[in-house]
């Protein structure tokens, strides 16, 4: 039985007598556990009853079937050993012996520090000579080096390894002996830098965005002398300023506006119990390059680029659409690293996003905005020099008029603009009069 579980020690005998038998459960060389007299009175040994709470009991409703099995709750290593079940009815006395072996998995230290040595053991009390031991780690078989005892027995109930993220998790010890199998499990939790959990983790961010480089230590660890370095492409010690609102184990830093030159390898570090713990990570920067094909006027070609594409398995382009509540949805999904868009089409205007995926799902995305435009009419040079353009769109005209009106009592800074506005306004009024006549 696994430590801290319930063990059931079998004792089944169908007596010939119609009278209720007397039953005694004892641990060999260690006294009585539980007994029931023929009268029905029950007694518990002092080691098996604490403050009226009995750890061992026999379900009386099974007696009529001849089942006198003993149930022991929360078994301990000290419970292991030989037990006897004595059933007395009339002049018949039946004794059944049961060996209880307790299996327990434990590690030393209880919470290994990452990159340090640790051991995990499978203890069986009492140990069965000639037993086989197999280890399963996170549902996969684990092979380790065998040890040979002084009497020539090969054992593998102890594993000694260096603490790495892949060894964290569930460890199960499977013990085989004389055709029977028992097992016990334990969760191995490692201390150190838990986010990111592994070295060389990649963090993705588009140009111009804000990104946090994570560096979180295990709960309960207070690292001293935390520091950040940029390792590649050129080594530099970063002036890491940690927010007072951050928990003491969180030494993450934030880059407010990512630039292309921020890509590369970073390292965070901190000292715990005299040991310097480090974690390396890579910042991958994404951007969209645009070009305008000379043969296709009004079109723009977009290319999704990342400073490291080793994890990327697929690219996807989507047009992002927002409703009046600000909720977004996507449409026009297209696969591939490149895309050519007719920017004069109203259906294509707005926000486009390049999503990039890895083996386990989406890694990140980067966006490109196509300006909302309508058909343009020629503009005078004075307007063009000020990055303004003429439009037949009435909303644009009204906006220009609204901006221009406060200037009427002042010196006009853009006389050409006022002329254009009046000209367009007059043309618009003339068109409306012509429509009314028709």
Describe this structure in words.
The chain contains 3 helices and 34 strands. It has 438 residues and is mostly beta strands. The protein has 5 domains: 7-100, Immunoglobulin-like; 103-188, Immunoglobulin-like (Sandwich); 196-283, Sandwich (Immunoglobulin-like); 292-370, Immunoglobulins (Immunoglobulin-like, Sandwich); 381-437, no CATH class. A hairpin with a 5-residue loop joins strand 24 (224-230) and strand 25. Helix 2 packs across helix 3. The chain is elongated, with a radius of gyration of 39 Å.
Write the layout of secondary structure elements.
Blueprint: E1 7-9, E2 22-27, E3 32-36, E4 42-44, E5 49-50, E6 53-54, E7 56-57, E8 70-72, E9 81-89, E10 92-100, E11 102-108, E12 117-125, E13 132-137, E14 140-142, E15 147-148, E16 154-155, E17 158-162, E18 169-177, E19 180-188, E20 193-195, E21 201-206, E22 211-213, E23 216-217, E24 224-230, E25 236-238, E26 253-255, E27 264-272, E28 275-291, E29 299-306, E30 314-322, E31 328-335, E32 338-342, E33 350-358, E34 361-370, H1 381-384, H2 394-404, H3 415-437
Helix pairs in contact: 2-3
